[in-house]
Design a protein that fits this description.
The chain contains 11 helices and 9 strands. It is α+β, with helices and mostly antiparallel strands. A hairpin with a 2-residue loop joins strand 1 and strand 2. Helix 3 runs antiparallel to helix 11 and helix 10 packs antiparallel against helix 11.
Length: about 290
């Protein structure tokens, strides 16, 4: 879309970024006189014959997500359809995604990585207590503001486009397979611990500089997530240090019953570890400064 294009009552200013499900735009809300972010969902995601159903579900999930008021959650202001696209109007966060930061090789030190994960877990705690599962936690959905505050985006989007669409009917996955929990890969019922597994993958990536399941194909990736232990490589545990490795091992357990019980516990444990690293009571990862 070009600057000046109207989406609902909003005027597009410019493109912020683009992903698998569509694009994010900076826009102006003339009614309230503020700038917002608008996520447009690609037409291919709208499910062809199911378009009306998908649109209704999208708006319903947006209404649910809009009730999540938390400092670490990107606020949702509006949702609707424009032509062949679905759109979501959100709080504009000045900063960058964690995905962009990692892609440009700026990996955080261990203490900062743990705080980023803890803030994301704070957001998930709020959502889970309200009965909302994110389903697509990944670096691209973690925004880091200029003030250092982490905000989780896209609550409700993955669920809204995942049920009975062309994608699921053709056996394709909605979401980001590299960050999916085993039960999500299997198509089982999800709960908050599924999001925590995904957050654990993000934390592993921040700390190790690579994903725990570094497959070249989706088939291999699925096998690794379901069956392989990223800690079988002795160098991983050694480079992380004992306490960090043990924390990640629990978060990334294949069996969700063996994982941390909830996001609140994840955040508390992550901050405790960060404090111990700062005090020198826990071993820093190799190369950490």
């Amino acid at each position: 879309m070009r600057p000046g294009t109207q989406v609902g009552r909003y005027e597009i200013v410019g493109e912020i970024g683009r992903g698998a499900m569509g694009a994010v735009w900076r826009a102006r809300d003339p009614k309230l006189g503020r700038e917002v972010a608008i996520k447009t969902i690609a037409a291919a995601m709208s499910g062809g014959d199911d378009r009306a159903e998908i649109s209704a579900r999208f708006e319903r999930e947006a209404r649910v997500a809009a009730q999540l008021a938390h400092p670490n959650i990107v606020g949702i202001y509006d949702a609707g359809t424009e032509g062949d696209s679905l759109f979501l109007v959100m709080e504009l966060v000045e900063g960058e995604t964690l995905g962009h930061r990692l892609a440009t090789g700026r990996f955080p030190a261990a203490g900062e990585a743990l705080e980023i994960a803890a803030q994301a877990a704070d957001a998930l705690s709020c959502a889970h207590e309200a009965g909302v599962i994110h389903r697509d936690i990944k670096p691209a959905n973690l925004l880091i503001g200029r003030d250092g505050r982490v905000k989780v985006s896209d609550f409700g989007v993955a669920k809204a486009v995942s049920e009975r669409t062309e994608l699921t009917r053709t056996g394709m996955m909605v979401g980001s397979p590299a960050y999916m929990a085993p039960e999500q890969i299997k198509g089982m019922q999800l709960d908050g611990r599924s999001d925590l597994f995904s957050l654990g993958v993000v934390l592993f990536e921040m700390l190790c500089g690579r994903k725990p399941f570094p497959a070249d194909t989706v088939t291999t990736l699925v096998y690794q997530i379901l069956h392989e232990d990223p800690f079988e490589d002795a160098g991983v545990a050694t480079s992380l240090g004992g306490e960090l490795a043990e924390f990640l091992r629990q978060v990334l357990a294949k069996d969700r019953e063996a994982r941390l019980a909830d996001a609140r516990t994840f955040a508390r444990r992550a901050r405790e570890l960060a404090g111990r690293l700062a005090d020198g009571a826990a071993t820093r990862p190799a190369g950490d400064t």
